[in-house]
Amino acid sequence: MSIPVTLVTALRRLCLACLLAGPASANPYGEKVARVTRVPGLVAFWDFTRREAPGGRFTAHVPPGAVTDYPLDASNYVRELWHAGPAATYADFPLLGSGPFGEAIRIRAETNPDFRPLLLVPRARLHDTPLDIKGAGRAVTVVVWAIRESGNHALAGIWHEGTDLRQASTETIVRVERGQRQYALFAGLNHEGAACGHVSENGASSFLNRYALHKCNSPAQSPRVPHDAPAEVLARAWRTFAMTFDSGTQELTGWLDGRGGDRWLENPQRDRLISSAANAWRQGRLARIPGLQEGEDPAFPADQHYNPPEEEPLRVTPLAAEGGRQVELREYRYTRVRVTLEAGRETDRELVALRLNPWWYPHDLYTPPADGTGGPFTIGRVIHSSRSVGFTGWIGGVAVFNRALTAGELADLHALAAPLPRP
């Protein structure tokens, strides 16, 4: 008599669970996994040890009663959208044989421009599930245990950057799709090796720039470590990247190894990308003044103004005083502003610094329409028009939570970074 395939799969999962279960002292893998899954708000945790069956797809640890454990498919997004390049398989993600939870996958510096493999949960399998964090009042934390070999791009999240940008790499595209960004964790972007959280309120761009620009950067930055470094070097190289978005405080924060901290950008008007946020601050300020002001763009959309709270300064530093004219530097939580006063009345206001960590984000997370256009959850890369190589290195764990974890909780998760051998 033949046994149904579904029963075989269930039995395999039960056997794997039995092998991995047991007293914490006898099962360090089980103990470490439990320390992640016990954190309140867990949505999904891929440790690259748990699989559907031996040799099957990676699946996530999920809370009791979850309807899916989010198995990961291998995909080459260039093949899907440009109809070019080979198909991706699990063979394109070499295994290390150790990691914070016993295993790790490698994201390689692919040389074929038509080959950008990633692991993903397709939109059809995640839409409206707990992983689809979106909408009013929703918060999120993404944690990735990784060794960074190179690059500053995506680690994990729902971040389909869109393929509708007009550039050389999109001239031959077959499927043109609008951006479907929600939340994601990157390995630095404008500060390579930092923990960079990225969120979007509209799935598309910010401040009239072509890119989404609501992002934070941890002050600490991870070093480059060759993927084939000696085992003892790799064992010491694991870093814990994390991002939190707290919808209550409207703060997006990057954390490296459990530490957040301040990062400021001086003279944001001179930055290649953040200059757009600086202009959004200026346009918002000018729009609040009655009448059309010099430098004001009346066509600039009000929902793209960027004006963090500036009611009460944290500190005021006098810069100049002559007659009835005064110049002072006012520092607020998210901005530093040079203010000019004539006879006690403000006559000019200039942005001199923007706080990048934490970053003020006054919106909800983007809610894609229920028409199949939302983005997938991806690990190792995201879908984007430029098709750059992105992050390379080892990824040994990815966890998503539906709230902003505390500094203490993130420090506890970083304490799990020391590697284990494959169970």
The amount of beta strand, in percent, is 25-35%
Major pleated sheet: 8 strands, antiparallel
Compute the separation of the termini in Å: 33 Å
Mean pLDDT reading: 93
Percent helix, as a range, is: 10-25%
Number of helices: 7
CATH-assigned fold name of the largest domain: Jelly Rolls
Order of helices and strands: HHEEEHEEEHEEEEHEEEHEEEEEEEHE
**What is the 3D shape?**
globular
Instruction: Report the CATH C-level class of the largest domain.
Output: Mainly Beta
What Rg, in angstroms, do the CA atoms define?
23 Å
Number of strands: 21
Q: How many structural domains in the coordinates? A: 2
Determine the structural class based on helices, strands and strand pairing: alpha+beta
Low-pLDDT segments, ≥5 res: 1-25
**What is the CATH architecture descriptor of the largest domain?**
Sandwich
Outline the structure in words:
The structure is a single chain. The longest helix has 16 residues, at 5-20. Helices cover 15% and strands 30% of the residues. It folds into two domains: 26-265 and 359-421, Sandwich (Jelly Rolls), CATH 2.60.120.200; 268-357, no CATH class. The strands form four sheets. Strands 1, 2, 5, 7, 11, 12, 18 and 20 form an eight-stranded antiparallel beta sheet that branches. A six-stranded antiparallel beta sheet has the order 3-6-19-8-9-10. The protein has seven helices and 21 strands. The protein starts with a helix and ends with a strand.
